[in-house]
Amino acid sequence: MSTDRTFTTWLDDVEDQRRAAGLRRELRPRAPGNALIDLASNDYLGLVRHPEVLHGAMTALRRWGAGATGSRLVTGSTTEHELLETELAEFVGAEAGLVFSSGYTANLGAVTALSGAGSLIVSDAGSHASLVDACRLSRARVAVAPHADLDFVRSALATRTEERALVVTDSVFSADGDLAPLVDLHRVCRDHGAFLVVDEAHGVGVRGAGGRGLVHEVGLAGEPDIVVTATLSKSLASQGGAVLASEKVRAHLVDAARTFIFDTGLAPAAVGAARAALAVLRREPHRAESVLDRARDLARFTGAGAPESAVVSVILGDPQRAVDAAAACREQGLHVGCFRPPSVPEGTSRLRLTARATLDADELARIEAVLTDVLAGASA
């Protein structure tokens, strides 16, 4: 048998296995003017079509052109990038900021540049895939802590032989929407000379005063041994990521973060959109609380527990059951997320609902009716 045929056969076998397990994924392109009520995206503040955000993108596009034209260290930095870094850092209470092309590359860059061979990383089992991949690429020894297990983290740090250590975690975990015990984690890190890296992708815009994030909410903003990463593609309705930390950390990342050095800079239009979205949030801080209010509505409709973030999970168990429920919602005009392994552990496939600050009374009534009908069918 030829090598080509062997590889093709392997691909066929893998696809068959995924189909049998209910794990086959499909792309579903959106059309302009999609009539579905959106409970699947991460547009938590409802800013992705806000006139000021669109104007910010268009102004930057006209001023700087369609692309960044190069890496940040060559031609890819503009004054727009620097303004966004300053504004984001000030908003979350950090000393400095550095913008990357995505939240994924921000996590890869921060974790790999701050660790390396001869160091230890302790990562929460619920951390986002970008943090998981950063750990794998870091060349550090990695210890995966059971979810929110402070005793494990403490023991791993106390018994390490490595001089340097990082603890990495989401602030708001993307699948369940629960919160990391940041105050206790930071105390453990400080007791053992470790840095704490916190991914605020789902925290900024939702938690904290005016959406400043969970790190700010619990009083840890600006601590020199905390590194915050964030995305611009959720509450800030754009694209890109950022690391928000001390000036010393920023300078190190400029020299050492490979996803910063070797990646093309974030497109100017995305930078302009994010700056405009941040300006709207600063002017209208009530949007952050509105997200949590709408999440409470979604939890009430589904019988889920009280939410701590914009995320409401409805666990159905079987992957195909979750796929069928999501399809039934779509047929009735409601777009919901569907999480299956490997995004979530085996046996916990679910509908993932994300709240949006701008959901109105008519939409909420429709959402309640659809979810009541679909979940009744899913449990039958």
TrEMBL record:
<feature type="domain" description="Aminotransferase class I/classII large">
    <location>
        <begin position="36"/>
        <end position="366"/>
    </location>
</feature>
<dbReference type="InterPro" id="IPR015424">
    <property type="entry name" value="PyrdxlP-dep_Trfase"/>
</dbReference>
<dbReference type="InterPro" id="IPR050087">
    <property type="entry name" value="AON_synthase_class-II"/>
</dbReference>
<dbReference type="InterPro" id="IPR001917">
    <property type="entry name" value="Aminotrans_II_pyridoxalP_BS"/>
</dbReference>
<protein>
    <recommendedName>
        <fullName>8-amino-7-oxononanoate synthase</fullName>
        <ecNumber>2.3.1.47</ecNumber>
    </recommendedName>
</protein>
<keyword id="KW-0663">Pyridoxal phosphate</keyword>
<dbReference type="GO" id="GO:0030170">
    <property type="term" value="F:pyridoxal phosphate binding"/>
</dbReference>
<keyword id="KW-0093">Biotin biosynthesis</keyword>
<dbReference type="InterPro" id="IPR015422">
    <property type="entry name" value="PyrdxlP-dep_Trfase_small"/>
</dbReference>
<dbReference type="InterPro" id="IPR015421">
    <property type="entry name" value="PyrdxlP-dep_Trfase_major"/>
</dbReference>
<dbReference type="InterPro" id="IPR004839">
    <property type="entry name" value="Aminotransferase_I/II_large"/>
</dbReference>
<dbReference type="GO" id="GO:0008710">
    <property type="term" value="F:8-amino-7-oxononanoate synthase activity"/>
</dbReference>
<comment type="pathway">
    <text>Cofactor biosynthesis; biotin biosynthesis.</text>
</comment>
<dbReference type="Pfam" id="PF00155">
    <property type="entry name" value="Aminotran_1_2"/>
</dbReference>
<dbReference type="GO" id="GO:0009102">
    <property type="term" value="P:biotin biosynthetic process"/>
</dbReference>
<keyword id="KW-0808">Transferase</keyword>
<comment type="subunit">
    <text>Homodimer.</text>
</comment>
<keyword id="KW-0012">Acyltransferase</keyword>
<comment type="similarity">
    <text>Belongs to the class-II pyridoxal-phosphate-dependent aminotransferase family. BioF subfamily.</text>
</comment>
